[in-house]
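Sample pair:
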Amino acid sequence: MVKSVAAPQAKGKSAEDKIFGANNRAVALSEKLGADKVINGTVGSMLDEDGNLIMLDVVQKAYKALTPKEIVAYAPIQGYPDYLEAAIDQCFGESRPEGYIRACATSGGSGVLHHVIHNYSEWGDEVLTSDWHWGAYGSMCNDNGRKLREFELLTPDGHFNMESFKANVSDMVAKQYNTVIIMNSPANNPTGYGLSDSEWDEVLAFLKDVVKGKDKNIIFVSDVAYLDYSGEKHECRKFFKKFGNMPDNVLIVVAYTCSKGFTMYGQRMGAMICVTPNKDIADEFVAINQYTSRATWSNSNSAAMKVMANICKDPAKVAELDAERAKYFHLIQERADLFMKEADECGLKYLRYISGFFITIPMEGSQKVCDELEKENIFLVPLGKGIRLAVCSVSKKKIHGLAAKIKLTLDAVGAKQ
């Protein structure tokens, strides 16, 4: 028996992560053989066509312009006011919803999810998300004594599975005081799917109805980590307008992050933004989440907040930011289009992709396929029901022919789609 002094709820926990494990192997092999000999489609960070990690030029300049005080000073627990207003503005753009809107700085988008799970669900509760989701959702729930529940994201013809969503929400509302729902759209990780306008309308109308006249609450978390690479700047934000005029017992929380939109992955900077028609609920939102920040990581990264706020104060820099984002959005779309075209040609199935960093190839036996692909220096992420390819980080040159290689390997090991 392995000796342990951990508390009962902590025994057996492990931080092993398939994504970073595969990435570490890919990086090590690249250093040995040369980057041109390895395809690394594992981690969700943007790389250019030469394989270099992208940091937006406007962000680099803003970092270099920081004063020593901006870099090292303790920030307010809630976050700098100019940062919070910039986060709200960058998130919603021209589609700011009606209602009381408040924000708290967090440690990336992950911090938002942690705080919502911690403060709006109870010990032993279930938290709902789609079956295709970022694996850390489950870890966050487990670490807080909650359970992650899944509804089926897609119908067989590639549309939002409203029936599965409604059935799961209805069952949870019947059992729990609060029902926390995490919806990663647009540009879902790992599928690249996003809800249409009509699907958003039906989801939100149902949420209003399912708790109408009841002493029950819905906490709806909109995880928009990949928002800035999901479409034209204003068009892809139009759904936010729909978050206004919800009833008091449907609280909207948007999980906003600077990791992707400002390419500040390792700076761990984000913001949780609430939308509610009730001032008391908005005030409570700030109070309880600010408290949890203090009790978890204290205050957030001062330099990252100042970089973001300083850019957003200058219209010329915002225009530069928008242009750079658009450039890389189109590059990722070109890579995705190439992969899907070649997948169609060789008969490799993939889930409906609209935008974002990832494409998913559904199959049984994903681990076997990934193990065999690694023998050919191709590193992808095995999921429970498929394989994730990060088109954000694989050049068009390396995308070319990749679908056929995956199909050949899939057939060779007897995996089924």
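The chain has a mean pLDDT of 96.
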